[in-house]
């Protein structure tokens, strides 16, 4: 991926989201496109119009941290967007951020033990690595979402599952939000690791095979999930809602642990307990065949 071009496209996308009135700019009937004009953003950021135009058009390869901070403030970027801007410009923020950890393909024995412990607490849990690769998961997560362990190695990926597996559309209650967030996570990863050939190949495959991915990718949104709620239409236990926490694993791992939980004494908790019982029961050959064709099954 060409980071200079990506930087310009990201700036253009963010500029288009700003309401000129909110930025103190006079209303004008002549505006043909939404958002701020280039000269207005340059004025707010305290840079020349010519310099900003070259930056947005990919004709300038340098941008100081001070200029990036000014642009981020003028564009009202949130923390995630701010980090993405600096990643694309290959600069460090004036206030240092945590170093980006290196990729890893495996989790430690301690994390595997933690995943098993969370199974006993009726908490689905899994670890995502770079490119949204599913590095590890516990039994309940595989029963709820999909049996990633049974998939070919190149398919053990959240983005691949969300955009290319029809079962995902039926499984997630709000598939559109899940899909948009997944594309935004990949966009964030692309800013941090522009030279990753596997990431480039994944984005290329998704863009070719999924029109929905192409649309979400074109939005140039970036996102890092830390907590939230998610609904499921599970083929075995029905409707349930979970809350999740995303925790960065310590060390040079570039991995995030996602832990799901439910409200105590809720129908969702009952559903997870039932799913835990079902997922550990021996399956007959006939039930294995049927289950393997359903989303969120463990075989």
TrEMBL record:
It comes from the Bacteria. Pfam families: HTH_31, MLTR_LBD. GO terms for molecular function: DNA binding. InterPro entries: Cro/C1-type_HTH, Lambda_DNA-bd_dom_sf, MLTR_LBD. Residues 35-82 form the HTH cro/C1-type domain. Transmembrane segments: none annotated. This is Transcriptional regulator. It comes from Streptomyces avermitilis. The lineage of its organism: Bacteria, Bacillati, Actinomycetota, Actinomycetes, Kitasatosporales.
């Amino acid at each position: 991926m060409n980071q200079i071009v990506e930087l310009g496209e990201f700036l253009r996308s963010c500029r288009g989201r700003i309401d000129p009135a909110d930025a103190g700019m006079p209303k004008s009937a002549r505006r043909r496109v939404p958002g701020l004009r280039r000269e207005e953003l340059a004025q707010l950021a305290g840079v020349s119009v010519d310099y900003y135009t070259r930056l947005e058009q990919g004709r300038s390869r340098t941008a100081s941290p001070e200029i990036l901070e000014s642009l981020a403030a003028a564009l009202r970027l949130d923390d995630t967007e701010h980090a993405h801007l600096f990643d694309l410009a290959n600069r460090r923020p004036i206030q240092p951020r945590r170093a980006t950890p290196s990729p890893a393909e495996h989790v430690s024995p301690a994390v595997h033990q933690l995943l098993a412990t969370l199974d006993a607490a009726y908490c689905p849990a899994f670890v995502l690595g770079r490119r949204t690769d599913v590095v590890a998961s516990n039994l309940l997560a595989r029963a709820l979402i999909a049996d990633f362990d049974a998939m070919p190695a190149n398919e053990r990926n959240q983005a691949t599952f969300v955009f290319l597996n029809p079962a995902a559309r039926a499984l997630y209650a709000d598939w559109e939000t899940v899909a948009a967030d997944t594309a935004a996570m990949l966009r964030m990863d692309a800013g941090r690791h522009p030279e990753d050939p596997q990431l480039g190949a994944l984005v290329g495959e998704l863009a070719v095979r999924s029109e929905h991915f192409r649309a979400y990718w074109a939005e140039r949104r970036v996102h890092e999930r830390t907590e939230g709620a998610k609904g499921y239409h599970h083929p075995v236990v029905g409707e349930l809602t979970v809350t999740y926490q995303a925790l960065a694993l310590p060390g040079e791992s570039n991995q995030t642990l996602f832990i799901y939980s439910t409200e105590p004494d809720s129908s969702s908790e009952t559903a997870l307990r039932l799913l835990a019982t079902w997922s550990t029961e021996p399956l007959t050959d006939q039930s294995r065949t049927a289950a393997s064709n359903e989303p969120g099954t463990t075989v």
